[in-house]
Amino acid sequence: MKELSLNILDIAQNSVKAGASLVDIFIEEKGDLMTVTVKDDGCGMTPEFLAAVTDPFTTTRTTRKVGLGLPLLKMEAEQTGGSFHIESVSDKIDKEHHGTTVSASFVKSSIDFIPLGDIIGTLLVLVQGADGFDYVFEHTTEKGSVGFSTAEMREMLGGDVPLGTPEVIAWLRDYLKEGYESLR
From CA 132, how far away is CA 126, in angstroms rounded? Predict the structure, then answer.
C-alpha cells in the first residue's frame, strides 16, 4: 500500500468483521523507529489459521482467494529493517480472552519506509462507521501524543448524538489536526 494509514484501515476493518467491540490503534515513534499496533477483542484466529495468515493465499474472504493486507504490512516493515508480529487467541479456545494483536515496526530512515499518510482521514472513516463498537487511538512521539476514545466521546455527547454526524466528524477532524500540529 502507498501509506501506512491504509494498512491501519484494512486491519481495523478486519477487526470489525471479526466481531470486535473494541479496536485499539497505537502508533509510537521513538528515534528512528515507528511502531504501529492494532489490537482487537474479535473472534481471533485458530492456531492453524494464524500460522498461515501472512501467506497471500490465506484469507477468510469468499469473494476472492487472495488476502494481501497482512502479507503486505509484513513485507513493508521488514523491507525497512523493521519487524512484524501477530498474536491471536480464538474464541473457540478461550471464550473470555480472545482477539488479535498486529504489530509492525518500521525504520523511518530506510529508503523503503512508506509514509504514514492521511491518518486523520483514516480515523474519520473508521469513526463514521463505529456503530456498536469502539476505537481507542493514540499516536505518541518524543514531542507528545494525540489520541481519542470513541467511548469517551459518546459519554461526553450523551446517547442521542451519533458519532457519524457531520458536526462530530468535523470536531474530531479539527481536534486531531490541532493535536498533530502540536507534535511538529
Answer: 12
**Which one, of 52, 49, 45, 51, lies nearest residue 88 by Cα?**
45
Q: Report CA 88 to chain centroid distance, whole Å.
A: 15
Q: Which of 30-44, 48-62, 159-173 has the lowest mean pLDDT?
A: 48-62
Distant-in-sequence, close-in-space partners of 22: CB < 8 Å, separation ≥ 6 = 40, 41, 133, 134, 135, 136
Helices 4-17 and 69-79, axial angle in degrees (round to 10): 150
Residue ranges of the alpha helices (H) in the chain? 4-17, 47-52, 69-79, 119-128, 150-157, 166-183
Contact criterion met (CB below 8 Å) for 15 and 38 = yes
Which domains can be identified in the chain, with CATH numbers?
4-183 (3.30.565)
Residues 118-143 pLDDT 10s = 999 999 999 998 777 899 999 999 99
At 111, is the pLDDT very low, low, confident or very high (cuts 50, 70, 90)? very high
49 pLDDT tier (thresholds 50, 70, 90): confident
For residue 60, what is the enclosing H or E element? Answer: none
- What's the grid cell of residue 14? 478486519
Identify the H or E element spanning 164. none
